[in-house]
Structures
1.
Amino acid sequence: MRIMRMSCCGTEWVGPDRAHCCRRFGGCGAVFDDAQLWDTHRPRGVCVTDPRELGLVATRNGIWQRALDAAG
Ligand SMILES: [Zn+2]
Ligand SMILES: [Zn+2]
């Protein structure tokens, strides 16, 4: 599998299919495993301060994913 490095607004991650909350558009700069998690972290159009409140955990690469996925 080809590894694609992404870089944006001071954040770096691996994988082109991640959902990035861009600081250039008023986001928090976080990177999420998929678009659904991205939606979850903005319940009222505002980023949550700490994605851990939503039951998410960050990978070593700084990508937020569901705790269940991380356990598996
Ligand atoms: Zn960005
Ligand atoms: Zn955000």
Note: The chain has a mean pLDDT of 92.
2.
Amino acid sequence: MGGHGILLFSLSSLLGIEASTQRLLPGLISSHREPLGGHMLSSFCSKENLFALKNTAELHVPPPPQYYSGLIKDIETLGWNKVEFVDPAFSIIRLKAEDSCSRNHLITLKLNPKYPTEPPECLVDLPVQFSASWNPESSLLSIHSQFLAALESLKEFWNALDEIDEKTWVLEPEKPTRSATMRRIAIGNNVSVNIEVDPRHPTMLPECYFLGADHVVNPLKIKLNSNIHLWDPEISLLQNLKEVLEIDFPSREALQKSDFSMDCGICYAYRLDGAIPNQVCDDARCGQPFHEACLYEWLRGLPSSRQSFNVIFGECPYCNKQITLKLSKKV
Ligand SMILES: [Zn+2]
Ligand SMILES: [Zn+2]
């Protein structure tokens, strides 16, 4: 921390800012605008403090007084209502932005003491890279409007995924972030499809990967291949998936009412070290899901099981019919 820390701590205590009073910041700043102008700051910087600052200046360059006054001016131009968070040191600022579909987004800016000569670091939750163009005359307002433009360019992508999140049962991710391009959607008892949506072409056919027993998954693959010409970029992603696969995705409520089982038949859990049960018994009447690691341990313990390269053959612990485990990686 060094001198940097001393200056920042003192400045925030000067302003009476506590981390827990962030929401009061706008008022505090307006009523304390004078101290930021410079003269109180220089009277605060006593000889001892300046000496301390000088000694650590090589390690951490403290922001000059105009850093704060410039930043406050920047925030006032943008509007305090767009500020979600400011740390007491004024080095981290989080801004709010609402896209034209009323979705709320955040952008976190990490400012360095040379702001605005040097650009802030931007942290965003977007499925694509965000790099704001910057010159020394740029301000928070210009970053904010570039962020809004980036949000608009992803509108279709979020429309497509919001519809899926709302109308189907998304098994993974459990709480999708705005940058998440993947969804695993439940289709029926122990059957699901994994889709990977291209954020730049959200209504195009996504990469699809089916999970489930062969007798259910194979007909879906055949339908996808033979109906692919029906794909219409003018209609929604979900509608296209329904029409091409000739299925109706069940809602979470409907599936939970039936005896939809997702838990592993060996450890009785859904999540095991972050993994979900992705192996299914091939027998149509059984269809029991298992974790790859659990099934591997089970089959390895069976005297009757045999392995050929990365495939292990044995019996299902539930129905005793043959089950094959294709190892995806070393377990
Ligand atoms: Zn398990
Ligand atoms: Zn079985």
Note: Confidence is low (pLDDT under 50) at residues 1-59.
